[in-house]
Specification:
205 residues; alpha+beta; six-stranded mixed sheet; globular
């Protein structure tokens, strides 16, 4: 949680440091099995006072069922549906109403969302006119590409004492291709690493 957790007190920095080893290691990490393993997601969670921060990282395959650029109407609908789910974090993470949590910041990031101008695609489309060979090469490149979805959230919880657990059942229910989530959790009881599954989806702070 490089962008959010670094704002927390020094007591909470070990997890942030582990995820901020430098840009030179980022691509290597994402190429490893820890960063991109189908069926496996990663969640960083930190509760500090009234501030709860979550960062979910997942291969697009877990959330969409594919990792290529959405070209068909059906694929585009799946992207829109997944994004709509991710834009409702209070429901997705089943935060208890008694905690009085509201979303302070929210950021979704993926090349499949098309948020940023894709000059490479524009260039590739120009190359398509050069012949079928270039087109097949372009498609093969996208077929081999690994795409990820990152979702970052910051909540303000008026009654943090009521936030004793983090429930991931809705994540597994709404994204059934996600089989397990590796979690790094920081809370009043310290830092812990746990593995959540659909059968064991409730985490304790």
């Amino acid at each position: 949680m490089r962008r959010l957790l670094l704002a927390l007190p020094f007591a909470l920095l070990p997890l942030a440091i582990a995820h901020a080893q430098g840009d030179e290691h980022e691509h290597e990490e994402h190429a490893s099995l820890g960063a991109h393993e189908h069926g496996v997601g990663h969640l960083n969670a930190a509760l500090d006072g009234k501030t709860l921060e979550l960062e979910l990282e997942s291969p697009a395959m877990n959330l969409l069922g594919f990792e290529h650029a959405a070209k068909s109407t059906a694929d585009q609908a799946k992207v829109a549906a997944a994004r709509a789910e991710l834009e409702q974090p209070l429901t997705l993470f089943s935060l208890p109403a008694a905690a009085g949590c509201t979303v302070a910041k929210q950021e979704l990031e993926s090349p499949l969302f098309g948020d940023k101008p894709d000059t490479e695609h524009e260039h590739d489309h120009d190359e398509h006119a050069k012949g079928e060979a270039a087109e097949h090469e372009h498609e093969h490149e996208h077929d081999d590409q690994h795409s990820e979805i990152h979702a970052r959230y910051q909540f303000t919880c008026n009654e943090p004492a009521a936030l004793k657990t983090l429930d991931l059942r809705e994540v597994f229910k709404r994204f059934p291709s996600t089989h397990k989530i590796q979690v790094q959790l920081i809370g009043p009881q310290g830092q812990q690493g746990v593995e959540a599954t659909a059968e064991n989806a409730t985490l304790s702070f």
